[in-house]
Design goal:
Number of helices: 6
Radius of gyration: 15 Å
Bound molecules: glutamine
Helix content: 10-25%
Structural class: alpha/beta
CATH architecture: 3-Layer(aba) Sandwich
Order of helices and strands: EHEHEHHEHEEEEEEEEH
CATH topology: Rossmann fold
Mean pLDDT: 95
Shape: globular
Number of domains: 1
C-alpha cells in the first residue's frame, strides 16, 4: 500500500485523506520534514495559498518539498504554491511559492459572482468530477508541461514529470479517478 502524505498545515486536507483511503492508498498528515520523508507521494490541498506558503516556510516544508524528488499533487491553492509565478489576481507577486512547476497561474480567476461550482471535466484520465472554489487557472505553461485538461478554454490540469496540479478539487466529490491516478504514479 502506498503511503500518501497530505500537507496538513492549512486547508481541506481531511477531505484528501478520506479520498486517498477511498482510492486504496494509506493517507496520513504531514506537517514536518520528518513526516514527509516517510511518504511515497504528497498532496498539497486547497485552502488559502498565501497563508499556506507562509506556514510552509515556518515549518521548513518549503525546503523539504523542493528536495523531495517524489510525486507531488497540488489542488487549487496547492497548485498555486507549486507554480513559478502569479500573473494576475489577488496579491500578485507578494506571496511565497515553491516554484517547482514551470507554470504561471491566475488566482481567483473564475469570477466573483460564481465563487464555486461543480462540473465534469474531460481529462486525459477520463471524465473527472471536480469542484471549483475561488479557483485559479494555469495562464502560462513551459515546455516540459503537459496540459491534461481544459475547462472553458482555460487550462485546469497539468503534469510536469512527477508533479501534478489541478485547479479544482476532486477530493470534494465521490470521484476517485485522480486520486487513483496519483497513487499509481508513486
Ligand atoms: N482562492 C484560493 C487562493 O488563491 C484558492 C482556493 C482554493 O484552494 N479552493 O489561495
Amino acid at each position: 500500500t502506498k503511503r500518501i502524505g497530505v500537507l496538513a498545515l492549512q486547508g481541506d486536507y481531511e477531505a484528501h485523506l478520506k479520498a486517498v483511503h477511498a482510492a486504496g492508498g494509506l493517507g496520513f498528515e504531514v506537517r514536518t520534514p520528518e513526516e514527509l520523508a516517510t511518504a511515497d507521494g504528497l498532496i498539497i490541498p486547497g485552502g488559502e495559498s498565501t497563508t499556506m506558503g507562509h506556514l510552509m516556510a515556518r515549518f521548513g516544508m518549503d525546503t523539504a518539498l523542493k528536495a523531495f524528488g517524489k510525486p507531488i499533487w497540488g489542488t487549487c491553492a496547492g497548485m498555486i504554491v507549486l507554480a513559478q509565478r502569479i500573473t494576475a489576481g489577488e496579491k500578485r507577486g507578494g506571496q511565497p511559492l515553491l516554484g517547482l512547476m514551470d507554470i504561471a497561474v491566475e488566482r481567483n480567476a473564475f469570477g466573483r459572482q460564481i465563487d464555486s461550482f461543480e462540473t465534469d471535466i474531460e481529462t486525459s484520465f477520463g471524465t473527472v468530477r471536480g469542484v471549483f472554489i475561488r479557483a485559479p487557472f494555469v495562464s502560462e505553461v513551459g515546455e516540459g508541461v503537459e496540459v491534461l485538461a481544459r475547462y472553458q478554454d482555460r487550462v485546469v490540469l497539468v503534469r510536469q514529470g512527477k508533479l501534478l496540479a489541478s485547479a479544482f478539487h476532486p477530493e470534494l466529490t465521490d470521484d476517485p479517478t485522480l486520486h487513483r491516478a496519483f497513487i499509481e504514479s508513486t
